[in-house]
Amino acid sequence: MPRKLWKVRLACPNSFCEGHQLTSAGIYPRVRQVLDIDGYYNLAAEYLECGRCKGKLISWSGAITRQLDVGHRGRFPVLLTYRYACDLRVAILMRQRGLGNSVTQIRKKLVEERTVAWHVRVNSYMTDCVTIMDAAAKNSLVVPKPTDPPAMPELPRAGWLLKVFSNDVITRLDEVKASITSVFGNILKMDSTKKVVKKLGGHSARTASWATNIGNEYGQVLMSVLTASEGYGIEPMVKGIVRRYKDAGVTPPHTLYVDRDCCGKKSAMRSMFKEWPDLKIRLDVWHFMRRFAAGVTSDSHPLYGLFMSRLSACIFEWSAEDIKRLKQAKRAELLEQKIRVPSDYDVCDRITRNELALHCRRRTRGVEETTHLIDELLEALSSDQGRDTLGVPLLDADRIWDIWASQKRHMACIQDPEGISLYTETGKLRKGGIVLPVLRCARGSTSLESFHLHLNRFIPGTTASGMHFQAYLLEGLSRWNEDRANAAVEMDVSPYSTSRELYSGPLKAATNDLSHSVFGKPIHPSYCAPRQYTGELIGIEYLYSQTGEALQDLTLDPDSEEARDLEDFSDDEDEGYDKPDSAANDKTLSTYDLEPRTRKSSIKRRLFKNPDSAAVTSNRQASLTDEGTGGETPTFHDSPKVN
After folding, report:
1. 155, 216: one domain
2. 54 and 93 share one domain
3. Regarding beta strands 32-35 and 362-364, do their DSSP bridges make them parallel or antiparallel, or are they unpaired?
4. What sign results for the dihedral spanned by CA atoms 101, 103, 106, 112?
5. Beta bridge partners of 454
6. What is the rounded distance in angstroms from the CA atom of residue 527 to the CA atom of residue 522?
């Protein structure tokens, strides 16, 4: 490391040394193999020594490179572990959080890439050998016999790659947390899910009950925590959000959408957000409609879909102006498709739900009108109109009216807040020669429901320990918010507008600073640096604050004994994407008989001696065969919550 050339002063990372300067102590005695995408390369470095504590550090360790500026730090793209080292290009492959992006899949891709590269090099070597041997044969020369090519180096296991990914997140921990706690919004949504907490394994398995998330009108996530219980367990999280707004001097949000505790004198939400007295708490309409679903006889009834559609129409009305403009565009589009004089029915029949949501606005009808329309709908479906062709009623006469009686008090909670625009125009789309606006709706917690699907995909496989779960979660949240922020702003007109593919905030900031100094203008004009980390607990940290546990510290010296113990992966369990087909899934298998009977007469005697037991055994085996091969029945929606 050219410390004198760069004019940098490197201090000892130990706190009791009080920043004592490090000095050179010779060459590092170990040459590390660094894993790259298509092979290995060797890393030789120098030793740095602290004259006060006599501690020695390799110059490429994270404790040293973090003291450099971003420009010089980028020249050390290596993550060190006890035995090996990993190039940053491999670590970047593991950062993208999505379906199937597990370390097991990354390792398979690396194995294929390295195998192809090894065969290319071997073929090149043998081609040269053949050329030399042919030339020697023509000139009657004696050449030594070619040696065998070196064996292809073995790739570390998936567990080691997982540790490298965790170390990569730890080195950027302050940056990632700061990006999460720098998100604000005017319209907040709060919702919880149970699905992702089932992936928490290790000693923390079954300690979490809910994953609670708070989002804003752009789809970004302000906070995501795991809790041991839903409800009062989220009060510290809410206090952290309130303090974040106060410390940053940001105007508090004016609306909050929830799925419960929206009204009442003893509302838990109102008491938790008491520092925001002007906050309007609204009930999510979809959760309100799902409560009525508990009053139907079956959700597979032929009239169930019609009932939910009519219930939505009782609550919302479309903007007549937007509908008119969309019909004009659709009519012009049909004329371009050589459909002569399309009727109003043809035009309306070809308008999809996606087009309605994308180009048209809705608003709530008001308390009185909504109450009147729902009354009429329930009365109509409680009569013969609510029966199918076999005479089966759609509504349970007793339950549906009890539900409606309890839900009337929420009529004001589902209405749009007055004087607040819930739609934002994000672009324009030309359809049939007519320009239509592209709208984004901030009403309800629909964006959080979509986030819950992706949140489950942040954690690959079936289980993850607390340490790895936290690394996956933090990286996924940071990238999710960055993608939502990019979608909410217009595209950069700069020729260097590549910020949508770059998730490193410090690298963007350093690039803009240097660009100002060199060119007098920023390369990423739309970039806004995040605030400092507020100290709020995120994800597993929040859960451990309730259970009394602590996250494992990964900020270790790669030469320490603790780092060696962490790298001992004796139980390298796969994440669930590469499980071989089990032979037990063969439906033709039967139970093993310890005393097999080969004679037909013996089998007949056993069957006819007790035919009932034989039938029971046969049915039991059939039941086990049918049930043992299937997975868990998927749940498409949570049961409605009635309060």
Report:
1. no
2. yes
3. unpaired
4. negative
5. none
6. 9
Q: Using the predicted structure, report yes or no on whether residue 215 has a pLDDT greater than 80.
A: yes
Residue 643 within a domain: no
289 in any annotated domain: no
Q: Is there a single domain that holds both residue 232 and residue 258?
A: yes
Structure tokens at 566: 């962490």
| Chain centroid, CA 485 distance in Å | 16
- Span 127-160, pLDDT tens digits: 999 999 988 888 878 888 889 998 888 888 888 8
Contact between 166 and 471 (Cβ < 8 Å): yes
Residue 578 makes CB contacts below 8 A (sequence gap 6+) with 104, 108
Q: Based on the fold, state whether residues 45 and 74 are members of the same structural domain.
A: yes
Residue 428 phi/psi, 5-degree rounding, is -135, 150
Q: Which of 228, 222, 224, 223 is nearest to 210 (CA)?
A: 228
- pTM as predicted: 0.78
Residues present in the chain in total: 643
Condensed to tens digits (0 to 9), the pLDDT of residues 569-624 reads 444 444 444 444 444 445 444 444 444 444 444 444 444 444 444 444 444 343 33
Segment holding 402, helix H or strand E: helix 397-407
Half-sphere exposure of 546 (CA within 13 A, CB side): 23
Considering the domain architecture, whether residues 150 and 136 belong to the same structural domain is answered as yes
In whole angstroms, give the CA distance from residue 454 to residue 474. Answer: 13
User: What is the spatial distance between Cα 90 and Cα 155, in angstroms, rounded to a whole number?
Assistant: 12
CA triple 286-290-294, angle to 5 deg: 175
Q: What is the pLDDT of residue 494?
A: 54
Same domain, 221 and 119: no
Instruction: Tokens 């009686």: give the residue.
Output: 405
Q: What phi and psi values does residue 467 have, to the nearest 5 degrees?
A: -65, -50
The answer to whether residue 354 sits within a structural domain is no
Range of the domain at 139: 1-171
> In this structure, what token pair is assigned to residue 630?
């299937």
Residues 146 and 224 in one domain: no
Q: Which long-range contacts (CB under 8 A, 24 or more apart) does 12-18 make?
A: 12/50, 12/52, 12/53, 12/55, 13/57, 13/63, 13/64, 14/50, 14/53, 14/55, 16/53, 17/50, 17/52, 17/53
**Per the structure, how many domains does the chain have?**
3
DSSP string computed for 413-459: TTSPPTT---EEEEEEEEETTEEEEEEEE--TTHHHHHHHHHHHHHS
**Domain identity same for 84 and 1:** yes
Q: Which of 114, 140, 171 is the last residue of a domain?
A: 171
CATH classification of the domain holding 461 = 3.30.420
The answer as to whether 609 is a domain residue is no
Q: Mind listing the pLDDT tens digit for each residue in 354-395?
A: 999 999 999 999 999 999 999 999 999 999 999 999 999 999
In the chain the first and final C-alpha atoms are separated, in Å, by: 65
